[in-house]
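Review form for a predicted model. The reviewer records the input and the model, then writes brief findings.
Reviewer: anonymous (R2)
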Amino acid sequence: MGAISLKLPEDETSGQCAEALKLSRAEYIRRAIERMNRETRARLRAERIAQASRRVRKESLRVNAEFARIERDPDK
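Model under review:
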C-alpha cells in the first residue's frame, strides 16, 4: 500500500470521530477514502447504465410498438 501525506483542518473533527469509533486517525481516514471510492464507483456505474439505457430506448420503443401491432392484429 502506498503512503500519502495530507494536511487536515485544525478542528480535530477527524480525530474526535476516530476516537469515538475506537479507531486510529489513520484507519478512520483510510476507511473514509475507501467509502468515497466505493460511492464514486457506484455513481459512475449508474451513470454508464443510464447512458446505455438512453441509447437503447428508441429501439425498445420501436420493438414494443411492433409487438403491440402484432397483438392487435396477429394476421397481418
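Findings: The chain has a mean pLDDT of 89.
Further findings: The chain has one domain: 13-72.
Recommendation: see findings above.
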